[in-house]
Write a structure and sequence with these properties.
- By secondary structure, the chain is α/β, with parallel strands linked by helices.
- About 30% of the residues lie in helices and about 15% in strands.
- It has two domains: about 130 residues, Glycogen Phosphorylase B (Rossmann fold); about 180 residues, Rossmann fold.
- It contains eleven helices and twelve strands.
- Strands 8-7-6-9-10-11-12 form a seven-stranded parallel β-sheet. Strands 2-1-3-4-5 form a five-stranded parallel β-sheet.
- The protein is globular and about 60 Å long.
- The chain starts with a strand and ends in a 5-residue tail after the last strand.
Length: about 325
Amino acid sequence: MKIIVRMPNWLGDLVMALPAVRGLQQNFATGGPRGWGGEPPEIVLALRKPFADLFPKERLCVLDGSETAALRREGADRIVLMTNSFSTALAAYRAGISERIGYSLHGRRLLLTWPLDWKARPHHQRDQYRQLARAGGAAGTPETARLNPKDFPRMAGLEKTEKRRRRIVLAPGARYGAAKRWGGFGELARELVQSGWEVHVVGGKNEAPRTAEGDFQDWTGRTSLTELAGILASADLVVGNDSGIVHLAAAFGRPVVTLFGPTDESRTAADGAVVVRASGVDCAPCHLRVCPIDHRCMKRISVEHVMRAIEKTVSVAGDSETVSEGKKGE
């Protein structure tokens, strides 16, 4: 039997789906599964084993029929849809794949041969992918999937030495939208440098903190995704918003501190993350990309609060917990 796994599009979702994919690979050691995505994520293409052939090399699109045609050429017997869009289910249906497994939402039920009840899905997104894998034939799936740092290039100047300072990586961006982004990373960087940390800032172009000053390394907009992975793998600690970067860091087994506002940590927190959230914000989580009011869910998180979470993470690295911040003035 030939199986295709339609992988998620976002980096964080992709990392959360890796345990499910490993489960399918363990169950179908020969002949599959082959992963599939509309746009090849560089992070997966860089992996030598077992994900080296997960994605087609060309960029495909449902609207112009190229993804449907490419899926048809694969000649698969079964597809597991780890995306929830109508368009990816439609492409699988038009490609004539006989077994189509996915969650039943957005009007997709008639396009699927095995629709899973969305309302009865597991709570955490990682477990939703694992449920899809079991429906696709996996006898079991691991709780987590670790990545090997040796599969990623190390940036020049990041060699570890016995006498080096503790290295912390800050990730102030979030592609999902401005509502996820905390504005205190500049002040946090200064505090960390003064506290003796070796500070590195990563992310896309124009994601460096505007108010950041001092002795820190700014990698924003200067690395490929695989080079970014190498930086994360070298860190003693990673601090970021709810984004793909913190999920990638956790996949390397790095301790992470994640700042949550509009999204729900019980559904998307990275493995082992220490979660920072402002307390007393009735409108959170709202899951909006842009805050329509005053962004209180992120503005009420203080630099002092994040520093306490960092200290706690260093002392009990690996423990998963939530640290709540009170309202300003309390």
